[in-house]
Structure prediction request, 463 residues.
Amino acid sequence: MGEESERRVVPASEILAKIERGEAVEYDDVIIEGDLDISELNLPTEHVDRTEEEKQFGLSDELKVISSPITITNSEIQGKVNFSNVKFQKPVDFGGAEFGRYAGFGGAEFTGDAYFREAEFGGNANFGEAEFGGYAYFGGAEFTGYAYFGGAEFTGDAYFREAEFGGNANFGEAEFGGYAYFGGAEFTGDAYFREAKFTGDANFGEAEFGGDANFINVTFDNELILNNFKFGRLYITWDSIKDKLVYNGPVYLALIKNFKVIEQFSDADDCYYAYRKESQDQKPWYSQKNCLIDNVVRFYNWISTNIKRISKYFRWISDLPPITWIHRFTWSKLFDWIGLVSCGYGVKVWPIIIWGLGSVLGFALLYKILPKSYGGFVESGPSTVTIEALNNSTHILTLSPSDNIVSPSWGECLYFSFTALTGGTPEGLHPAGLLRYAVMFENVLGYTFLALFVVVLARKLIR
Prediction:
């Protein structure tokens, strides 16, 4: 109470009179009594075209023009604030101000910069349909009630770092033309960004969403940063962020889990696929071995460099060339690559189908062009009976199969290849020569593709 009694008390009428006269408004560390309501002031107006929706929110076609620069910092505003439907021609600074009741800036146009850093909004705050032509600074601001920025336009950068939203926050259909920074912001209630548009970079790193976060139909034209992003339920589609999201492993894993919780399983699969792909791309094919060999190499190179300082008898060692680092092959990258091309990391069916059809066509071509000297198809016909006479009283009956290597047509090659891939062999035909090994290999591929297909399909159906 001692501090409060030392602060100068300023009636709201004094400030309104200065605004009406076009004088500069500069106050710091004061208490403002009464409502700051410009609706009854005699100010010049400027015509704007309002949509029907804006008119339903009480916004008129005539803006009151305020030519005064306004600076009210570190002050307590005890009454209501109504700067709705106003055009500020000069910068506005409410840094550190305490809005005890409703703060209305709906439909306002901020031609210059607007500073609300560390401002405290005790009641609801309305910035709906406001236009920020310059820098909009809300860093560290506290919104106790409902914070409404629906349809607001931020032409310059929008800075909400470490802002605290105690109630629900609505940025639906807002447009961010510059850098949108919500790093470290805390949303205790629900956060609504539906159909918002981010033309510049959007940074939500370290932001916390305690309630539901709605980002349905949001457009991101540049990078989206979600590092250390914390949320309960995030309603968003993978297609809207897949090409803009800056890679971060924990973020991808959190999004995968979130998509499953909100039953967007297709988005979960696509996000998992992108996570594995990005993770694989960042792995090198070769890396330095961090083992005993590395330590031996380091010791050798140190000796060869510094031996002259130790003893003149071992100077010849310093003439030896240094050993380059031994690299090892990154097997995990190879396994990731196999998982990618074979079945899309277990979430895509189409790679398996493509591999199966490709195998059928490839082996059919092999069966068609393989020279007969290396083998081919043998057509099994009825056995031939041969009677040979050893002497006048003894005869031998011989059965010899009539197997002949044939030249199959393209249709027969495709049929044989498809049958071989599925583990069967056409009746009346069997491979001979090197062709037997090709058929055996195609059988193995067929069983492999079948197993992958069953696993991926079951994963999609059972969940």
Remarks:
- The mean pLDDT is 84.
